[in-house]
Amino acid sequence: MEKRFLSSKTKRFYFNNGQADVSYVAIHGDELAVDPTQDGTVTGRRDAFYRDRQGSIAANTPMSPQRSIEYYFLDIGQGDASFIVTPNNKKILVDGGLKDRALGFLIWKYRLDKPGNKG
């Protein structure tokens, strides 16, 4: 498996949660692990790992081996915070406010609620 970054706006990631088949929406810049030798021509899908889940994504999903710059604008109540992720994975939070609204996004995005994850 190799690390890749989603190059399209969004794509569905399908997996089974133990009870049913469900999906997440992966967004531009999200990191996935994919098998580069699997082209998905038979099934239309390729195996992938996303947010600690094993599943599949459309075989024609555009992905890049390098992270592009990502910008997020977060409503934190009394204005907006800006969050930037650089191509070399540096994370910059600008005007995050005093409450934990920006922190809630960062916990979700980088799975900081999982033991051992440091974003």
How would you describe this structure to a colleague?
Helix content is 8%, strand content 45%. It folds into two domains: 2-64, SH3 type barrels, CATH 2.30.30; 70-109, no CATH class. The two termini are 20 Å apart. It is built from one helix and ten strands, in the order E-E-E-E-E-E-E-E-E-E-H. The strands form two sheets. A seven-stranded antiparallel beta sheet has the order 3-2-6-5-4-1-7, with no helix packed on it. A three-stranded antiparallel beta sheet has the order 8-9-10, with helices on one face. By secondary structure, it is mainly β.
What's the layout of helices and strands?
Layout (H helix, E strand, L loop, with lengths): L1 E5 L3 E7 L4 E7 L3 E4 L10 E6 L2 E6 L4 E2 L5 E6 L4 E6 L5 E4 L6 H9 L10
Antiparallel strand pairs: 1-4, 1-7, 2-3, 2-6, 4-5, 5-6, 8-9, 9-10
Features:
SH3 type barrels; 10 strands; 3-stranded antiparallel beta sheet; mainly beta; 7-stranded antiparallel beta sheet; 119 residues; 2 domains; 8% helix
Provide a quick synopsis of the model:
The protein is mainly beta and 119 residues long.
